[in-house]
Amino acid sequence: MAFENAIITKEDDEKYGLTKMFLKYNRHDRGLPDRWYWVIDRERDCWLMESGFFPDPELDHAYLSKSLWVLYYKGEMFEIILDTELYNKIIDQISYDKVWLLLDVRPITYSRLTNKEIFILLKEILDVYGLGGAWRQAKSPNYKVTLINKLKG
């Protein structure tokens, strides 16, 4: 099996404690929205879920383009800060429909994964996530995304 865009089920929520995690990053008292999405590979025991948003200090009720994601890989968890740079950008003579920026990686649990391994994993996941995950599944055959490493050090 490979990564797939999916809707989080009640069983997923119970297995991974997703509502508790979502509440950690959001001020909602109801938990996960009725339909919340992620990218998961159940055989590899790995998933990525958008979990938190950064308010725009200049606009009321608006958010910045960067957001907090949680990456889970075989019991290891990470807070990932991703931003979207530009849409339809050319890099090294290749046209990308969406360019992701990896801004930060923070382990939540002890990890043996290196930042390089995390970067490679995120590239694979974000390619499947495409334009917007399960709620925007329409992906043209030539749709291309890329991830640029902006980590310091």
Sequence-ordered SSE layout with sheet pairings:
Layout: E1 4-7, H1 10-16, H2 18-25, E2 37-41, E3 46-55, E4 63-73, E5 76-91, E6 94-107, H3 115-129, E7 145-149
Parallel strand pairs: 6-7
Antiparallel strand pairs: 1-2, 2-3, 3-4, 4-5, 5-6
Classify the helix fraction into a percent range: 10-25%
H/E element order: EHHEEEEEHE
Structural class: alpha+beta
**How many strands in all?**
7
- Trace the largest sheet across and list its strands: 1-2-3-4-5-6-7
In round numbers, the mean pLDDT is: 84
Low-confidence spans: none
Query: Sheet with the most strands?
Result: 7 strands, mixed
Distance between the termini: 34 Å
What spatial form do the alpha-carbon principal axes imply? globular
Strand content: 35-45%
Backbone CA Rg = 15 Å
Please, how many helices?
3
Task: Tell me about this structure.
The chain has 153 residues and is α+β, with helices and mostly antiparallel strands. 20% of the residues lie in helices and 42% in strands. It is globular, with a radius of gyration of 15 Å. The relative contact order is 0.17.
